[in-house]
Amino acid sequence: MFHQAELFDHIRQAPLAVAPPTVALPDLVERVSQVSKRPRYVLLILNLIAKAAGENGSLGPYVRSEANQVPVRDWLCQALAPLANRDCRRKAMIAAVRSQLIAKAETSENGRDLAQQQDEEIEARILRSGRTNVSRAVSDLVRAGLLHRHYQGFRVDHPNRGAQREAVYTIAPDVRLALASGY
Q1: How far apart, in whole angstroms, are the C-alpha atoms of residue 179 and residue 63?
Q2: Per residue in 151-183, pLDDT tens?
Q3: What's the CA gap between 123 and 74, in Å, rounded?
Q4: According to the per-residue pLDDT averaged within each range, which of 34-38, 77-81, 95-99, 101-105 is highest?
Protein backbone atom coordinates (compact mmCIF):
# COMPACT_ATOMS: atom_id res chain seq x y z
CA MET A 1 0.00 0.00 0.00
CA PHE A 2 1.04 3.50 -0.67
CA HIS A 3 2.14 5.69 2.32
CA GLN A 4 2.99 9.31 1.94
CA ALA A 5 4.67 10.47 5.18
CA GLU A 6 4.08 14.19 4.89
CA LEU A 7 0.28 13.66 4.63
CA PHE A 8 -0.32 11.29 7.54
CA ASP A 9 2.42 11.86 10.13
CA HIS A 10 0.92 15.03 11.61
CA ILE A 11 -2.42 13.34 12.45
CA ARG A 12 -2.59 12.23 16.08
CA GLN A 13 -4.67 9.40 17.32
CA ALA A 14 -7.52 10.38 19.63
CA PRO A 15 -7.51 8.81 23.09
CA LEU A 16 -9.73 5.77 23.26
CA ALA A 17 -11.75 6.58 26.34
CA VAL A 18 -11.76 9.87 28.16
CA ALA A 19 -13.50 9.89 31.50
CA PRO A 20 -15.91 12.77 31.89
CA PRO A 21 -14.69 15.38 34.34
CA THR A 22 -16.19 14.97 37.78
CA VAL A 23 -18.15 17.86 39.20
CA ALA A 24 -17.41 18.93 42.76
CA LEU A 25 -19.53 21.05 45.07
CA PRO A 26 -17.35 24.18 44.62
CA ASP A 27 -17.86 23.83 40.86
CA LEU A 28 -21.64 23.86 41.38
CA VAL A 29 -21.40 26.96 43.54
CA GLU A 30 -19.31 28.70 40.91
CA ARG A 31 -21.69 27.79 38.07
CA VAL A 32 -24.72 28.96 40.04
CA SER A 33 -23.06 32.21 41.09
CA GLN A 34 -22.36 33.03 37.44
CA VAL A 35 -26.02 32.75 36.42
CA SER A 36 -28.04 33.73 39.45
CA LYS A 37 -28.57 36.91 41.42
CA ARG A 38 -29.56 34.80 44.45
CA PRO A 39 -27.14 31.85 44.46
CA ARG A 40 -27.83 30.78 48.06
CA TYR A 41 -31.55 30.47 47.44
CA VAL A 42 -30.92 28.61 44.17
CA LEU A 43 -28.55 26.17 45.88
CA LEU A 44 -31.15 25.54 48.61
CA ILE A 45 -33.70 24.66 45.94
CA LEU A 46 -31.20 22.41 44.15
CA ASN A 47 -30.44 20.61 47.41
CA LEU A 48 -34.15 20.13 48.22
CA ILE A 49 -34.80 18.72 44.76
CA ALA A 50 -31.80 16.41 45.03
CA LYS A 51 -32.87 15.08 48.44
CA ALA A 52 -36.47 14.44 47.36
CA ALA A 53 -35.74 13.14 43.85
CA GLY A 54 -36.24 9.48 43.03
CA GLU A 55 -33.63 7.04 41.83
CA ASN A 56 -33.76 8.50 38.33
CA GLY A 57 -33.08 12.03 39.61
CA SER A 58 -36.57 13.34 38.79
CA LEU A 59 -38.98 15.11 41.08
CA GLY A 60 -42.56 15.86 40.14
CA PRO A 61 -45.08 16.56 38.89
CA TYR A 62 -46.51 15.89 42.35
CA VAL A 63 -44.86 15.37 45.71
CA ARG A 64 -46.50 13.59 48.64
CA SER A 65 -46.87 16.11 51.44
CA GLU A 66 -48.46 15.01 54.70
CA ALA A 67 -51.83 13.58 53.60
CA ASN A 68 -52.11 14.73 49.98
CA GLN A 69 -50.08 15.33 46.86
CA VAL A 70 -49.09 18.86 45.88
CA PRO A 71 -47.40 20.20 42.74
CA VAL A 72 -43.62 20.28 43.03
CA ARG A 73 -43.44 24.09 42.85
CA ASP A 74 -45.93 24.43 45.70
CA TRP A 75 -44.00 21.87 47.74
CA LEU A 76 -40.75 23.77 47.26
CA CYS A 77 -42.50 27.04 48.09
CA GLN A 78 -43.92 25.63 51.32
CA ALA A 79 -40.54 24.18 52.28
CA LEU A 80 -38.80 27.54 51.82
CA ALA A 81 -41.56 29.82 53.16
CA PRO A 82 -40.10 30.04 56.70
CA LEU A 83 -36.97 31.73 55.31
CA ALA A 84 -38.88 34.99 54.83
CA ASN A 85 -40.65 35.17 58.20
CA ARG A 86 -38.38 37.97 59.40
CA ASP A 87 -38.28 39.77 56.05
CA CYS A 88 -39.58 43.35 56.14
CA ARG A 89 -41.50 42.85 52.86
CA ARG A 90 -43.33 39.84 54.33
CA LYS A 91 -44.24 41.86 57.44
CA ALA A 92 -45.45 44.75 55.29
CA MET A 93 -47.58 42.37 53.18
CA ILE A 94 -49.17 40.87 56.30
CA ALA A 95 -49.93 44.32 57.68
CA ALA A 96 -51.45 45.39 54.34
CA VAL A 97 -53.67 42.29 54.18
CA ARG A 98 -54.87 42.84 57.73
CA SER A 99 -55.68 46.51 57.14
CA GLN A 100 -57.55 45.70 53.89
CA LEU A 101 -59.63 42.99 55.51
CA ILE A 102 -60.37 45.11 58.57
CA ALA A 103 -61.58 47.91 56.28
CA LYS A 104 -63.82 45.40 54.45
CA ALA A 105 -65.14 44.02 57.73
CA GLU A 106 -66.10 47.50 58.95
CA THR A 107 -68.14 48.17 55.81
CA SER A 108 -69.80 44.78 55.69
CA GLU A 109 -71.90 43.02 58.27
CA ASN A 110 -69.93 39.73 58.25
CA GLY A 111 -66.84 40.32 60.41
CA ARG A 112 -66.86 36.98 62.24
CA ASP A 113 -64.42 35.11 60.07
CA LEU A 114 -61.90 37.94 59.90
CA ALA A 115 -58.96 35.97 61.35
CA GLN A 116 -59.59 33.00 59.06
CA GLN A 117 -59.89 35.26 56.01
CA GLN A 118 -56.64 36.98 56.97
CA ASP A 119 -54.79 33.68 57.28
CA GLU A 120 -56.16 32.40 53.97
CA GLU A 121 -55.27 35.59 52.11
CA ILE A 122 -51.77 35.70 53.62
CA GLU A 123 -51.16 32.05 52.67
CA ALA A 124 -52.43 32.68 49.13
CA ARG A 125 -50.10 35.64 48.65
CA ILE A 126 -47.13 33.80 50.11
CA LEU A 127 -47.79 30.86 47.79
CA ARG A 128 -48.15 33.12 44.74
CA SER A 129 -44.91 34.99 45.36
CA GLY A 130 -43.14 31.78 46.38
CA ARG A 131 -44.10 30.07 43.12
CA THR A 132 -42.60 32.96 41.22
CA ASN A 133 -39.39 32.79 43.26
CA VAL A 134 -39.10 29.02 42.79
CA SER A 135 -39.68 29.33 39.03
CA ARG A 136 -36.96 31.97 38.73
CA ALA A 137 -34.53 29.87 40.75
CA VAL A 138 -35.25 26.77 38.67
CA SER A 139 -34.73 28.82 35.50
CA ASP A 140 -31.31 29.79 36.85
CA LEU A 141 -30.52 26.12 37.49
CA VAL A 142 -31.60 25.22 33.96
CA ARG A 143 -29.43 28.02 32.55
CA ALA A 144 -26.47 26.73 34.59
CA GLY A 145 -27.01 23.25 33.12
CA LEU A 146 -27.58 21.61 36.50
CA LEU A 147 -31.25 20.80 36.05
CA HIS A 148 -33.64 19.85 33.26
CA ARG A 149 -37.29 20.95 33.39
CA HIS A 150 -40.20 19.58 31.40
CA TYR A 151 -43.94 19.53 31.88
CA GLN A 152 -46.17 16.50 32.38
CA GLY A 153 -49.86 16.22 32.88
CA PHE A 154 -53.37 15.97 31.52
CA ARG A 155 -52.88 15.03 27.88
CA VAL A 156 -49.28 14.17 27.09
CA ASP A 157 -45.75 15.01 28.17
CA HIS A 158 -44.95 18.32 26.57
CA PRO A 159 -42.07 20.79 26.64
CA ASN A 160 -44.45 23.72 27.20
CA ARG A 161 -46.61 24.37 30.21
CA GLY A 162 -50.38 24.87 30.28
CA ALA A 163 -53.41 22.62 29.84
CA GLN A 164 -53.18 21.17 33.35
CA ARG A 165 -49.51 20.27 33.05
CA GLU A 166 -47.15 20.47 36.00
CA ALA A 167 -43.37 20.83 36.11
CA VAL A 168 -40.99 17.90 36.49
CA TYR A 169 -37.39 18.61 37.50
CA THR A 170 -34.53 16.23 36.67
CA ILE A 171 -31.06 16.69 38.10
CA ALA A 172 -28.02 15.83 35.99
CA PRO A 173 -26.28 12.64 37.23
CA ASP A 174 -22.93 14.33 37.89
CA VAL A 175 -24.68 17.04 39.93
CA ARG A 176 -26.44 14.39 42.03
CA LEU A 177 -23.09 12.74 42.74
CA ALA A 178 -21.53 16.06 43.74
CA LEU A 179 -24.40 16.85 46.12
CA ALA A 180 -24.35 13.34 47.58
CA SER A 181 -20.62 13.37 48.22
CA GLY A 182 -20.71 16.83 49.79
CA TYR A 183 -17.38 18.03 48.41
Answers
A1: 21
A2: 886 655 555 555 567 889 999 998 998 888 766
A3: 12
A4: 34-38
Mean pLDDT of 54-81: 87
Please tell me the distance from the alpha carbon of residue 100 to that of residue 108, in angstroms, as a whole number.
12
Element containing residue 125 per DSSP (H, E): helix 114-144
Q: Which residues contact 33 (CB under 8 A, 6 or more apart)?
A: 39
Q: What per-residue confidence (pLDDT) applies to 140?
A: 94
Cβ–Cβ < 8 Å for 153, 163: yes
CA–CA distance, 73 with 156 (Å, rounded to integer): 20
pLDDT, averaged across the chain:
79
pLDDT computed for residue 19 by the predictor: 47
54-74 mean pLDDT? 87
- Please tell me the distance from the alpha carbon of residue 150 to that of residue 175, in angstroms, as a whole number: 18
* Calpha distance 151→61 (Å, rounded): 8
Cα–Cα distance measured from residue 39 to residue 164, given in angstroms and rounded to the nearest whole number = 30
Inter-CA distances, 89 with 39, 40, 71, 84, 115, Å: 20, 19, 26, 9, 21
**What residues contact residue 98 under an 8 Å CB cut-off, 6+ apart?**
118
Nearest C-alpha neighbor of 175 from the set 20, 19, 22, 18: 22
